[in-house]
Write a structure and sequence with these properties.
Elements lengths: L12 H4 L4 H16 L4 E9 L4 H8 L4 E8 L2 H10 L5 E5 L27 E6 L8 H14 E14 L5 E3 L9 E4 H10 L2 E7 L10 E7 L1
Parallel strand pairs: 1-2, 1-4, 2-3, 4-5, 5-7
Antiparallel strand pairs: 5-9, 6-7, 8-9
Helix pairs in contact: 2-3, 5-6
Length: 222
């Protein structure tokens, strides 16, 4: 049994009201599987970029099948806790000192060539929940390039984003707090993905069953 301190629960209050991190994490994992056309993550190597602790909670406490799970996040104290307390050998965790105006303003600016803490490992699935929702365009492009380096040739990338239909490009929902919510037009986000070598396979507005999730994409390498 993995018990994660409440201080590491970064979920929105509306999500917390739906259940424990393990339960909402399991819901989202099952949703990803549905989008991928799979019954489960069994046999897959998964990279969770900007991982938080919700998926680790679900994998350990709800018996999620997979081959391996690698979680990466800028929150060093949370990563240290997970690395020290998760005993499941399938899971490992790394901190990354990537600059972000809201979550890690003192970090190192990201680049597509930055050294990755998990080395040259390639993954079947790269997922990013509430990551691109907090990235300005240049950083979003860098993250998509990093993800492409880490993806197997036949792998998939799943990520959530805040997308609107109007042709405005990109804006910050809260200009006084950059990256508090970064909003993209579909055309602008598609341009960034294509430039990074990704092809959009599917797009879906918010997750079903009342889960207050952002819009989400499944992509393959082009």
């Amino acid at each position: 049994m993995l018990v994660i301190p409440e201080r590491f629960n970064r979920n929105h209050p509306a999500i917390r009201a739906l259940g424990s991190q393990a339960d909402t994490g399991l819901f989202l994992i099952e949703y990803i599987c549905t989008r991928l056309g799979r019954a489960s993550l069994a046999g897959l190597d998964v990279l969770d970029f900007g991982c938080g602790c919700r998926f680790a909670d679900a994998i350990v406490n709800r018996g999620v099948p997979l081959n391996s799970y690698t979680g990466v996040d800028v929150q060093t104290d949370m990563i240290d806790f997970l690395a020290e307390n998760v005993e499941d050998p399938r899971l490992r965790f790394f901190s990354i000192d990537a600059q972000n105006p809201m979550y890690n303003p003192g970090g190192v600016p990201m680049s597509s060539e930055m050294i990755l803490p998990f080395g040259d490992q390639k993954f079947d699935l790269i997922c990013m929940y509430s990551v691109i929702t907090h990235q300005q365009p240049d950083d979003a492009a860098t993250i998509f390039n990093i993800a492409r380096r880490a993806c197997k040739n036949d792998g998939r990338m799943f990520f959530s984003a805040a997308v609107e239909d109007a042709d405005f490009g990109y804006r910050e929902e809260f200009p006084q707090a950059p990256t508090g919510l970064s909003v993209y037009s579909m055309d602008r986000l598609a341009q960034i993905l294509i430039a990074a070598g990704w092809q959009i396979l599917s797009f879906e507005r918010r997750a079903p069953s009342g889960m207050p999730n952002q819009d989400s994409f499944v992509c393959s390498m082009s």
